[in-house]
Each structure stands twice: as C-alpha cells, then as structure tokens.
Amino acid sequence: MARTTGSHSDITGPKVREAALRLFAQNGFAAVSMRAIASEVGVQAGALYNYTPDKQTLLFNLLCTHMEQLLAAFTDDTSLAPVDRLRRFVDFHIRFHADRPDEVFISYMELRNLSPENFSAVEALRRQYEDRLQAILQSGADAGEFDIADTKIATLAVIAMLTGVNTWFRVGGRLSLDQVIAQYWDMVRKSVMSG
C-alpha cells in the first residue's frame, strides 16, 4: 500500500509506538484494539498498517526495543572489584527503569501475549542482560567476596527485587530516588557478601 502524499512516517511511526505502549500498559495488550491505537494517534485504523503489520508485531517491537536499549546502556567495567561492579549494576538498573515505568510493566506483564517465536527472541535478550549480572556475581563468588550458593538464582532474585521499585516508587514521594537506590544497594550487598 502506498503511503499517502504528505504523510510523516518519521512522526507518525513513533506516535503509534508511544500510543501502543501507553495503552498496553494502562489496559493490557488483549484489551487494546488497533482501532483504539489509531484513535489515540489520530489516524484511521487502516493507516496503522503502514507502520506495523499487526498488533503482535507492535508488542514484539516494543519489548525488543526496551531490551536492546537496556543492553546498549549498561556497560560493565571488569577492571573494578566485583562489589563495585555490583553497586554500579544496582544503580544503573534502578535509574534506567525508573524513567520507563510503562516499558517495565509491559516487559513483565505482556510476555505471555507473544507468539512462541517472539517470546523466544525477547527471552534471549533478557538472558543476555541477566548474564551480565550473573558474571558480576560469579566474579565475586570466585574471589571469595560473595557468598552465593547459586549465581543464577541470585541473579534472578536481584533483578526481580530491583525491578520491583517501579511498582511503588513515585517522584515526590517520601524518599528520593537516590535514597531508594542507597537502601536497595544495602539490601543487595547484605544478601551476597560473605562474612
């Protein structure tokens, strides 16, 4: 289908993704129709197919984009001590996700709505991120600094704890983000340190 004269794909495409993200987070993937997304953007429902073949692809692209941005943004300095690497990870993870509550919500709540093939692709990206934390924890365990029975379980537990900040933290609340990060770092540190 030819794009209409004067259309602005560089403007409308991002608006489609932003609207879908917001609506999926507010109402759930299953409850949001392509017509609702089109209405939010201010285009005809048929026009959405210029930007995405279907709703499944739209969800998949949102989840992949989130994970790709996460992977690109985090760098691990292996020259640092494991405890310092872990502290940097905690700080990064909470700050990165605090700015993206809708992305975090759909990344966890809407995985079940992906096709098996798309689910596998997103899970592979998630494993890449988990592997980075697991490498930090394994490094600390190997050095005798961390007391961890199973680094895979510890990895999943730490990520779940840190990601949980998004379920309750609000800017302007009782604690600042810096205070929250300091307390979460203290909890993570105590959960993995030996002695």
Automatic annotation (TrEMBL):
Keyword Secreted: no
InterPro entries reported for this sequence: Homeodomain-like_sf (IPR009057), HTH-type_TetR-like_transc_reg (IPR050109), HTH_TetR (IPR001647), KstR2_TetR_C (IPR041490), Tet_transcr_reg_TetR-rel_C_sf (IPR036271)
Presence of the UniProt keyword Transcription in the record: yes
Top-level taxonomic group: Bacteria
SUPFAM superfamilies, sorted: Homeodomain-like (SSF46689), Tetracyclin repressor-like, C-terminal domain (SSF48498)
PANTHER family in UniProt: HTH-TYPE TRANSCRIPTIONAL REGULATOR BETI (PTHR30055:SF234), HTH-TYPE TRANSCRIPTIONAL REGULATOR RUTR (PTHR30055)
Name listed for the protein in its UniProt record: Transcriptional regulator, TetR family
Taxonomic source organism: Sulfitobacter marinus
